[in-house]
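TL;DR need structure tokens for one chain.
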Amino acid sequence: MQKRPKIGIIMSSTRPGRFADVPTNWLFNIAKGRNDADFEIVDLRDYPMPFFEEKAPLHAAPAQNETAQRWGKKIASFDGYIFVTAEYNRGIPAVLKNALDYLYLEIQRKPAAFVGYGGTGAARAIEQLGQILATASLKFSVHIGMTEMMGMLREGKSMADYPYLDDFAKRMLDEIVWWSNTLKEGRSRSEVAKAA
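>> reply
TL;DR here they are.
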């Protein structure tokens, strides 16, 4: 029987005072109640990579930077990803784009889902991520808009005050687990076929 898939929840902002911890911890608490996948939070603060400066493209040679190697190894260990992202200037945080530039084979044939926060619920950042990732970007995302964010930042509210977001998260988690299992099995069959 196939092992449960491992899914990484990637915190995509590193700035001081970031809001990212709130939705990441909320999502992780929902996810860890499931018994069909294992989830792990990965914080980009733990991987302070320099601006991408590898001598060769990653399809030709692995990254030489030690932190980038550690980042790549961690990301390769997952069967799927959930990116928790802000939206900066109608796009993703630069630190996230830089981290993604250090990946190649690690994320291929693996699904990605998204939790966005900020103006328009980070819809534009999520759309951009779908274009950047060489993976299966899923249809269902969670969008935490400015109303919810300001409620938490200025009015003392919490994610529990917006229970409809739980419903969106559960639907997204159903999808990411299904796709993680399906693509994991597909990758396994492909490896068996190559070895034959």
